[in-house]
Amino acid sequence: MTERHVVVGVDGSLVAVRALDRAAEEAVRRGAALRVVYAVADRDEAGPVLASAVSRVHERHPGLPVEARAVEGGAVRALARESESAALTAVGTRGFGGVSGLLAGSVSWRLAAHVHGPLLVVRGDHPRDEGREVLLGLESDADEAAAAHAFQEASRRGVRLRVVHSATHPHTTPEPASLVAATSPVGQRRAQSDRAEEAVPRFSLARLREEYPGVEVDSRTVRTGPVQALLAATREADVVVIGTHRRAGRIGPPLGPFGHVLLHHSHCPVVLVPTT
């Protein structure tokens, strides 16, 4: 069954070419068309870049339907608008250094606050290698949309899904060893709470395991350093999927600790899946 189209933003840069190549692969995998979008001040400037992009896609994927679209205005607004009808929106990133201002000024960073569906940020430092696993960073049951997307990706690729679940908030400082006996009422309540935290992946993934019985799942709960554990796992992944959470009155992109670190340092492309 043909899905909605995949959208990719281009600007003539090498980074955008990497995003274009990945977006084309994603469109083929979904049986979807590819829409190439170039946001410019004057549409007459877009011709050469769009023609080159379309030619590259046709050369690599002869049967893939491709549409080129020049839009006037900023890239973030244009891609956010295009994402309303897209199965996936893709952009490239040059990677970020230690200066937070560089991250704040990037299209991917700002687009995360406005995109209407999954956003693929194409970055990473390992070569393309078919057969790598899909990685899911799961913070809570609120990440169900991200979990569903990760299962779909693993099913499409026919690969294993690795889940890294944070049993505590990524910013939480590990508590010192407890002096409360485990058999005391307080200790029992704490143990019950710990078991409940560790059960989150089982409850949130149970329905999806049934829906995708062919997907092998390796689920791991991490109590300390979940962000670092997720980042390390990106070395072996083809893509990492995380949820983003939008809250009323919140200013700026809803990336959270996982998103901040992955957009800085992930070794593979990152998919940001917005929740309500």
Q: What distance lies between the first and last C-alpha atoms, to the nearest angstrom?
A: 27 Å
Describe the sheet with the most strands: 10 strands, mixed
Which segments are poorly predicted (pLDDT under 50) over 5 or more consecutive residues?
A: 95-105, 169-180, 189-200
**Strand arrangement across the biggest beta sheet:** 3-2-1-4-5-10-9-6-7-8
Q: Secondary-structure element sequence?
A: EHEHEHEHHEEHEHEHEHE
Helix share of residues?
25-40%
Name the overall outline: globular
Enumerate how many helices there are, as a single number. 9
Structural class: alpha/beta
Rg, nearest Å: 20 Å
**Percentage of β-strand residues:** 15-25%
Number of strands: 10
Describe the secondary-structure layout:
Elements: E1 6-9, H1 14-30, E2 34-40, H2 47-60, E3 66-72, H3 75-82, E4 88-92, H4 100-104, H5 107-111, E5 119-122, E6 133-138, H6 144-157, E7 161-166, H7 185-211, E8 217-222, H8 226-233, E9 237-244, H9 256-265, E10 270-274
Parallel strand pairs: 1-2, 1-4, 2-3, 4-5, 6-7, 6-9, 7-8, 9-10
Antiparallel strand pairs: 5-10
Helix pairs in contact: 6-7
How would you describe the overall organization of this protein?
Helix content is 39%, strand content 21%. It is built from 9 helices and 10 strands. It has helices spanning 14-30, 47-60, 75-82, 100-104, 107-111, 144-157, 185-211, 226-233, 256-265, and strands at residues 6-9, 34-40, 66-72, 88-92, 119-122, 133-138, 161-166, 217-222, 237-244, 270-274. Strand 6, helix 6 (144-157) and strand 7 (161-166) form a beta-alpha-beta unit. Helix 6 packs across helix 7. The radius of gyration is 20 Å and the shape is globular. The two termini are 27 Å apart. Mean pLDDT is 82; it is low at 95-105, 169-180 and 189-200.
